[in-house]
């Protein structure tokens, strides 16, 4: 373990990371699906902040809600992991992270996976309401596992109970962390496996997803009028609109959210660039589009990440976002590569 910390520290001190490439804004996703979890110890929190500081990260999106598990005080979600961190650190872990990040002039946004319960069959919301709050596809359902779509349990965005509970969760975060810079709503969509084909139903589902987002934005702004609010957007665009029923360009064009983080994931830089170019044509405000560069698939190499990062930085969009901190070894290596000119899609 000591050797791993030493190697990571050596990487962090490399001058290539702090002074790499262009000066476009950089952001970072911090997932809780990593070992150790960032909010489980003070040392992990300090290492994250130091990584961001050395890497010129201006915003970190920290996962504080996933699978109906909360890393904050909550009466709605399972807080066992939050309580473990609280006991170990001696104070609220997310409060510590926000304070340390702000001391280094780094913004912190709460990343919340809202409509997905992942595979959590013990989710408090499932215990409270049963399968009636889950979205369905066209296959018959006899047991709980039959409700899994794309290997996840998805909440139905049109269900009033779902809207009430998710609104409550977001409110808990805003009340607990008055110095939080922003909210990023993830999984504001339907599952995209086996989507509906009827045009009327598809349009209705798009409307339900947007209505849920409108409700969340309204309730959030009632608590914190100036809080930054963003969502994630599926890619490619056809998948978002026709399969996940997520019309994220319209959310930008009508200023429903401050920006959208477009989840552009491909191990092929040429395909990555095609998706990005197409997405830019879908909105009048490309500067409100932040673009992810994925470092989580086994096929991702430092070379492919570096090429896609270069494509993102030259795209004219708002910010490039590394996904995610758990695979920082790939990110570190990529940001220290010296790519030749015009090499991005070779």
Count of DSSP helices?
13
SSE arrangement, N to C: HHEHEEHHEHHEHEHHEHEHEH
Number of strands: 9
Oligomer: single chain
Strand ordering within the main sheet: 1-2-4-5-6-7-8-9
Proportion of beta-strand residues = 5-15%
The pLDDT mean sits at: 89
Radius of gyration: 20 Å
Structural class by secondary-structure content: alpha/beta
Estimate the helix proportion, in percent: 40-55%
How far is the N terminus from the C terminus? 38 Å
**Unreliable residue stretches:** 1-22
Describe the protein's architecture and organization.
The chain is an alpha/beta fold and 346 residues long. The chain has 13 helices and 9 strands. It has helices at residues 2-12, 15-18, 42-54, 80-89, 93-103, 124-129, 160-176, 199-223, 237-242, 248-253, 269-280, 302-313, 328-335, and strands at 26-30, 57-66, 69-70, 107-113, 182-186, 228-233, 259-262, 289-294, 319-323. An 8-stranded parallel β-barrel has the order 1-2-4-5-6-7-8-9, surrounded by 4 helices. The radius of gyration is 20 Å and the shape is globular. It starts with a helix and ends in an 11-residue tail after the last helix.
